């Protein structure tokens, strides 16, 4: 069949293009078993237990329930390879088990699907369906050519309403949603994308798949005209590797980072929205071995500027493990360049364990004395602090030789309260200078004011958690 190419500008109709593409778009459903822990029946263990429903089985033992998920996908080859989102075909929680995956085509035919491969980090999955004759299919396009304002159409299975077509334009390219990670880089569209559209294709006007619909931003749960799609340039190489059974390796440095916010930039005296701030460095990781430190601001990696559209995570993840790259950073106001050898990214489970924090506990220390003049620090930061003694250190679960100031109270109207600081947190440094006394903290505040900065950067330790940097607006 000849490919339909509408005229330039606003098309009179999407009907011809839709008619050609729709047979390659499929609905995907899963049937799974989810184990439910005991404890849902308030009468468990009593003579009335059997009179009421609840998730627990006989004797309070865990039981299972059946669950389903719905989504969309598209056939990318005549022999039946189907692309979708990983979360469409993933089990619900750690106790879920997928029993069957069904792919339904536009003519209503159902096919049992084989799961070929998944990649949780990019949220992509590939299925395989079979029949005696070739399937209609669509091709990946070049998302790098996409421009803001280009027309697109999306076809999918929103709310289980199969074969739904919506249209719109590309609202932004390479949009970072703030979710972090190596693949927080999407095509944004105003086409209606709803629950169930996940995994479905975003087509350009040549009928090529330039994105895979993945998520929406919505305060209501429905479409408000802000939808996100994984760009084809990201998805296609991963999909090809999943089909070939190849391991997907990504680069990794081993740092926790955050964007350079306005407050953070003000505290450091650097431009806003340029580079990324290193909150912590994984011990013995690639970054630590190269000499990166918590508090560094990374501005360039492998010759590429670090920006909201081209994050550190994205650049490193798309660098082959073993590659040696220059990392340009700002440290204590000075430009420094170091060389790092990129490592292979650990699995998601390993990453979760390495960054897992124990449950937060109460501070557990008695009301401390707040010797000294608190008025200046309280006036500027909204904090009342006291030196960290060996006794308080033991009570807070940190080493007795830790130096810092313990927060005794936080003014509810201060930026410190808004940033989540609380009684029992330990201030280790201010603008990279250690502060063990009230006078030392006061001196840093005065120097910040003398430099006409509007914020100060504190390094704060909370019980059971790694120390982090928090920029505070001064009053």
Automatic annotation (TrEMBL):
Q: Which GO terms describe its molecular function?
A: serine-type endopeptidase activity
Q: Which domain of life is it from?
A: Bacteria
CDD domains with a match to the protein in the record: cpPDZ1_DegP-like (cd10839)
In terms of SMART domains, this protein maps to: PDZ (SM00228)
Q: Where is the active site?
A: 87 (charge relay system), 123 (charge relay system), 198 (charge relay system)
Q: Which residues form the PDZ domain?
A: 242-315
Instruction: Quote the subcellular location field of this record.
Output: Periplasm
- What protein does this entry describe? Probable periplasmic serine endoprotease DegP-like
